[in-house]
Amino acid sequence: MGRNITLQVIEAQPLQADSEDFRPRPRTSGEEVARAIIKGSREANVGQDLNLTCYVASSFPTPTNNIIRWYHNESHLKYDASVISGHQIEIFQSPNGMFSRLFIRSAQPFHAGKYTCSQNAAESSTIFVQILPSKHPVAMSRTNSAEPLGPSFRLTTLCSTALLFLTVINSRRK
Questions:
Q1: Residue ranges of the Ig-like domain (predicted)?
Q2: Which residues contact 76 (CB under 8 A, 6 or more apart)?
Q3: Is 117 within a domain?
Q4: What is the DSSP string of 1-34?
Q5: d(CA 158, CA 49)
Q6: How far is CA 17 from CA 29, 58, 96, 124, 165, in A?
């Protein structure tokens, strides 16, 4: 005896802009689901800096203990490991959500791969990054790579965060 089953797809979201893969995104009536959005370059040459910014939009209050986590190829990137790994992570809170910026100084081939940002109350977002061979020899740096990133990093973070915030707000108005 055959039974007819009806499947209703409520909403499908692409895994990434370049992908043909889709995943269902279930929603219940009236439930607001926050989503993480990653902005940044999908390609960098060896020796170039890599910046990825994650924004989690939300119109409901975010708990103060809710932080954005970054993963590289399924491995959690620790906030206090920047001297060893060459990455730095910063988080910013705004009335409309949270921002987190992952900065990698002088990207190397091992930095290539899948980057995911997630937050407890939001759907995660993933981006795939390629590190291409350098077109030009990388100049020797005069700074010690173990030094913490300075004021220029904070200014760049502030500017990129503001730009991402304005882009997201503008897209919500349309």
A1: 26-128
A2: 69, 70
A3: yes
A4: -----------EEESSTT---EEE----TT---E
A5: 16
A6: 27, 21, 24, 15, 19
Number of domains in the chain: 1
Residues in the chain: 174
Q: What are phi and psi of 81, to 5 degrees?
A: -100, 15
The bridge status of strand 87-94 relative to strand 97-104 is antiparallel
| 71-123-83 Cα angle (round to 5) | 20
Q: Give the domain range for residue 104.
A: 34-134+150-173
User: For the whole model, what pTM was predicted?
Assistant: 0.59
